[in-house]
Amino acid sequence: MLLPQQAEKLILDLVEPLTAQDTETLPLQAANGRILADPVTGRLDIPHWDNSAMDGYAVRHADLLACDAQPVTLEVVEEIPAGYLPQKTLQPGQAARIFTGAMLPPGADTIVMQEETRRDGNQVTVLASPKPQAFVQHQAEFYRAGTLLLPAGIELSAPDIAVIATVQALQVAVYRRPRVAIFSTGDELVTLDQLATNSLLQPGQIVDSNQYALAALVADAGAEPILLGAIPDQPQQIKQTLLQALQTADLILSSGGVSVGDYDYVEQVLAELAADIQIRSVAVKPGKPLTVARFSSPHRALYFGLPGNPVSALVSFWRFVQPALRKLSGRAADWQPSFVSGYTAQRLRADGKRETYFWGQAVFVNGQLQFQLAGGSHSSGNLINLAQTNALAMLPIGQTQIAAGELVQIMLVRTL
Ligand code: AMP
Ligand code: MG
């Protein structure tokens, strides 16, 4: 049984990220949430030219040296809205009315904000002396043309899209979405498709919930889920499904059948397909029976056999599959789950032998993060009280309890 950190490292080492062959070019408007595949540079300085950061007056600072003693009056020779080319060069004693973002006229070096002036016809009186260069945004102050603007390997979001638009990159190269094949194993399982034609469960049957939960997590991770159904506990069918998955998938997820029961065939099938099994169990609770294998020629894919218990399947995904997906997707960094610390509202107890996860909700109470344990049974078979989970509290190996009100490590699995 591997330690969780060992398993995490092993898994990340097994991941082969998407490469330059796995990219697509998208219009910038369609690139939100995607991973940038090529660095972005711009052809123009930002700002493109000296401009005003305020509504006010463009002036020559030298004209206002006397201003501290008494107000100075200047002649307003021009009005420059944003988007217009200044027509005049400021001479001594002159000012130009200017608006935020407008180009500085030649000769001007300082902006006096409107609030510090009094206007009278074509004259403006400056009431307080500005600092030299005040409220001037200088050409290239924010970005120098030709230098690196954004590196490859970052996930694009609104601010990045604004930045890329600013340098007129209409299209961006991003990695394609990783393809993740998902199937469930178990004779007892009935899929939603099957229920659509016959909504009666036979005695002993249950609904395959893992497949849909995993598909949602895969999509949330920016990958493309490929649903391959619920497969009976029959080695031949599991093998066929794996072969089908290998045709397209970068990563394969199955749930169920990885324990040591008589009907757990996954390991046998992996061996028949010459997959290299690297992990069989990890010291986490829930989620101990985790199988990780690497397929090689002719099709390469990383395989995760998750436990069938719904809670175990999801915890294993959050703890081990998500980091792999993040690396696979072309992200350059930040693969591992992030833990934050917060106060637990209830006492948490574990046996100390495995890294133990508790599901519930992280909420802000009086500005502090608090973990509230889900009510009801904390059994890995209970998926009902998993609803609305946004966080997992974690007790590391060796720790048997945390009292209510104490700090606990919290893994956020949804944005708060
Ligand atoms: P297994 O890992 O196959 O031994 O399954 C462990 C438990 O999880 C059993 O009670 C299964 O019925 C249940 N289970 C397995 N797969 C699923 C699934 N896809 N959806 C819901 N429950 C499942
Ligand atoms: Mg089973």
What would you say about this model in short?
With 416 residues, this protein is α/β, with parallel strands linked by helices.
Task: Outline the secondary-structure elements.
Elements: H1 4-14, E1 23-27, E2 40-41, E3 51-52, E4 56-59, E5 72-80, E6 94-98, E7 110-113, E8 117-120, E9 123-126, E10 136-137, E11 148-150, H2 158-166, E12 171-175, E13 179-185, E14 189-190, H3 192-197, E15 206-207, H4 210-220, E16 224-231, H5 235-248, E17 251-255, H6 266-272, E18 276-279, E19 284-285, E20 291-295, E21 301-306, H7 310-328, E22 339-344, E23 348-349, E24 355-365, E25 368-373, E26 391-395, E27 401-402, E28 407-412
Parallel strand pairs: 5-6, 13-16, 13-17, 14-15, 17-21, 19-24, 22-25
Antiparallel strand pairs: 1-12, 2-11, 3-10, 4-6, 4-7, 5-9, 8-9, 18-20, 20-21, 22-28, 23-27, 24-25, 24-26, 26-28
Helix pairs in contact: 1-7, 4-7, 5-6
The protein binds adenosine monophosphate and magnesium ion.
Adenosine monophosphate (AMP) is lined by residues 184, 186, 188-189, 206, 208-211, 255-257, 259, 261, 307-310, 381.
